[in-house]
Amino acid sequence: MDAVRAFFGICVIVALVLVPIVLYLLPAFVAMGRHHPNAAPIFIINLFAGWTGLVWVICLAWSFSAVPVAPAPVLVRVPVREVQAEEEEEDDALAIARQSRALEAQRAKALSQVKTRDARIARQDARDKACLARGIARDKAYRARGIEPGPLAWYHALSDLSQAAVLGLVFAVPAVVVVVLVAWHWT
């Protein structure tokens, strides 16, 4: 019962703090959500002079003002000049040497790719083993405290006050997001 009381107490405190802040900064949120070109001045003026009420209303109206749309870019076609290349006859020995160098470069590249892949696999294996070892150690620590390991074991390991704070945040953050989205949707 104490955890529920603490949870609701935190929810009330969060609501009493966050809701006025969100409402006070509503003109700035609307301007940022609409990608207003003057979003920064709206935010600064609202932050420092919005407490007067009249400035807050002016900032809100300003944030809803028309946002200029950038004109579509004009594409200009440039005529392409045809370039004629002259073909030179190559000596057979030169052609064979080029082919030989190309094959050697391909082999070196393939060998380098194999080495890189093997090193990447070895690093991933080391990370996987370390992660598994951390998981086993964490599960042992939970079992030592009488907590069954699982997806919510971290939550059960918290104190009652911390659990209430987590639940308060779980409910308060989406509520703030909804208020901001609703304000942005009105634009």
Q: What is the overall number of helices?
A: 7
Assess the beta-strand content as a share of residues. Answer: under 5%
Q: What overall form do the CA principal axes indicate?
A: flat
Order of helices and strands: HHHHHHH
Q: What Rg do the Cα atoms give?
A: 32 Å
Largest sheet: none
**Strand runs, count:** 0
Mean pLDDT: 80
Tell me roughly what share of residues is in helical segments. over 70%
| Count of all domains | 2
- The SS-based structural class is mainly alpha
C-alpha termini separation: 43 Å
Poorly predicted runs of 5 or more residues: 78-88
Key features of this structure:
single chain; 7 helices; 187 residues; 2 domains; flat; mainly alpha
Account of the 3D structure:
This protein has 187 residues and is mainly alpha-helical. The protein has 2 domains: 1-66 and 159-187, no CATH class; 109-156, no CATH class. The chain is built from 7 helices and no strands. It is flat. It starts with a helix and ends with a helix.
How does the SSE layout of this entry go?
Elements lengths: L1 H23 L1 H8 L5 H11 L4 H10 L28 H53 L8 H4 L3 H26 L2
Quick summary of this structure?
By secondary structure, the chain is mainly α. Helices cover 72% and strands 0% of the residues.
